[in-house]
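Changelog note: in this version the structure field was regenerated for every chain. One regenerated record is shown below for reference.
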Amino acid sequence: MLKTTREIQSRLSQVDIVVEVRDARIPFSSCNDILEKEIKNRQKQKLIIFNKADLAHANTPQIVAKHLPNTPHIFTSATDGFNIKNIISTCLKKFTIVRYIQFHKFIFQKV
């Protein structure tokens, strides 16, 4: 974990937006506090994707919205494809994307 954290820290200057994927079943326990501080210190834009939404408690989105009112987030399920295609539209609505074309090509090559 330490090696990965250092690698991410070294690459933060190269990105416009940080897309953090968390487990929707444990939305607050699955964050990395070290990276959270680093992202905040570098004033990076961030989107949190809460994956496994199909396995989370039904009121999890309301709880997250209450505790993270100013943080863009989206609930997805990679297993059944729920909300996956909305990741790009959420980024476009919430952020100024400088490198949209590169981002768009990358996402659709992976999906």
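Spot check on this record: The chain has one domain: 2-110. Helices lie at 2-11, 33-41, 60-67, 86-94, 100-110.
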